[in-house]
């Protein structure tokens, strides 16, 4: 049950409720033994999630958790892009969409759309 709770929290859209759940899971000592702990650690500490962490976590997901959104991205990709955008916003006061896209590993237009929907 703990693994499923962690998976759901990581896949959720960025926001206060997700942050509270991530904090609760991060403080639970049992989570340190889970394979998904590195991505939980990065997300809780507001660090940019690296691609290798995403790949490890993606391998743990069930088929229905790998579903595609209307834009063709997976639920995990959307969650990671949103998280990384929030993490970048804590570091950068001013950044171009080209630079933001490079940081998020998406094109500039997609970076602009993600930022616009999150504001």
Task: Give a quick summary of the entry.
With about 120 residues, the chain is an all-alpha fold. It is about 60% helix and about 0% strand.
Please tell me about this protein's structure.
The protein has 119 residues and is an all-alpha fold. Helices cover 62% and strands 0% of the residues. It contains 7 helices and no strands. Helix 2 (16-27) crosses helix 3 (37-44). The longest helix is centred in the last third of the chain and has 15 residues, at 75-89. The chain starts with a helix and ends with a helix. The model has no long low-confidence stretch (mean pLDDT 93).
Structural class: mainly alpha
What does the radius of gyration come to?
14 Å
- Global shape: globular
Largest sheet properties = none
**Helicity range:** 55-70%
Beta content comes to under 5%
Question: Keywords for this structure?
Answer:
119 residues, mainly alpha
Topology of helices and strands:
Layout (H helix, E strand, L loop, with lengths): L1 H10 L4 H12 L9 H8 L6 H10 L14 H15 L7 H8 L3 H11 L1
Helix pairs in contact: 1-2, 2-3, 6-7
